[in-house]
UniProtKB/TrEMBL annotation, chains A, B:
CDD domains in alphabetical order: POD-like_MBL-fold (cd07724)
Name this polypeptide is given: Persulfide dioxygenase ETHE1, mitochondrial
Keywords carried by this UniProt record: Acetylation, Dioxygenase, Iron, Metal-binding, Mitochondrion, Oxidoreductase, Transit peptide
GO molecular function: metal ion binding; sulfur dioxygenase activity
Cell compartment(s), UniProt: Mitochondrion
Amino acid sequence: MAMIRNSGIIFRQLFDRTSCTYTYMLACSKTKDALLIDPVKELIERDLNLINQLDLKLKYVLNTHVHADHITSSGQIKKILDGVKSIISKESGAVADVHVENNDSIKLGENIDLLVKSTPGHTNGCVSYFLANGPCVFTGDALLIRGCGRTDFQQGDSGKLYDSIHSQLFTIPDECIVYPAHDYNGNTCSTIGEEKLYNPRLCRTRDEFIDLMKNLKLQLPKLIDIAVPANMVCGV
Amino acid sequence: MAMIRNSGIIFRQLFDRTSCTYTYMLACSKTKDALLIDPVKELIERDLNLINQLDLKLKYVLNTHVHADHITSSGQIKKILDGVKSIISKESGAVADVHVENNDSIKLGENIDLLVKSTPGHTNGCVSYFLANGPCVFTGDALLIRGCGRTDFQQGDSGKLYDSIHSQLFTIPDECIVYPAHDYNGNTCSTIGEEKLYNPRLCRTRDEFIDLMKNLKLQLPKLIDIAVPANMVCGV
């Protein structure tokens, strides 16, 4: 069963067809407090409409890292909704209301408690957010479905990414659902168990992984020169 | 909580970025028997790979209707995997191993029992598949998230669609999750309660709805002349 099962949590996965980014909305069904993970600037209206229609109160906007392929809506949301706090890792160096570090806990309402897991390698400030009572983990660009984030810009480091995934994510129970920040093949989720068995990049030795990542020969994201500086300051 | 909660069911939502079609995979976690709803021909490898990696046995391929915008992979899957049965409504007039009608039940393994709900209007053979122990309903092109299927070709009938949705879908409990065959705005699911409140087309009188649908002025789907005849014979 690859789905959050906890009935105390309202959950939505949202997709940006342009950058293939997944945004996640989590809310406590008791207090109606809500948070967004990795929202996309162009889709702010869709996301805020949904929160409004579901009668939720947005409290936090989290980013898993400083994105290079799209601009976050966190700053814009803060301008529209009073009291919303932006959250990103301290290590990212980006501006935010709250800076988190490994093992920090982000509590919301009565039912949501996200554990911050430091998973650098794609960027040096990448974190994953683990929800024990999902169970699920929002892996950003560290672990993707049958893939992983690239490591050839923004302080990327293949060895570090391999270690992050193996020590911080592959140690979570197998049935935990993986919700990544992107998927380009129409997959919406996976599980830790599946990725341990079938991720073609991670089922290798560390040296093989580093070698493979060195030879991907990918084009730079179109938006990188605009998105990275913008995302260092909440996208505004 | 907009997600299937039943832990006896393995569930995946899959997306086709070209036609914005959602394919669904459901399996009984006990017997490992699986079914696919609305699979897309070009993505057969992705879908069969997933079933293989999850160690499932595909038994049924269901279509909610004769699609006009993509070709089903049901016939091709039957050629590859022995014993798989294709399922579509009798009313559709399409070739299949099993023809279903309103109130029929499709049982799979120990945990899956889909109730067929006749929801014509987009085409005259449209059905929705209701899973009471989700609870969720796969609505095909009848009810979309904040929208509905068009009614200007393939025996489309706006009045019939309005009646189908109101009598067959809006009578399901509010918390039931809606999984449509398409979404063009990056939404992955909704609930019956939300659509009753916020679907801009369905929150109208029957006459207003018919009038609105008459004036949509949509272009024909690019693939209609290829997809409809192909889908009448399982896509092959």
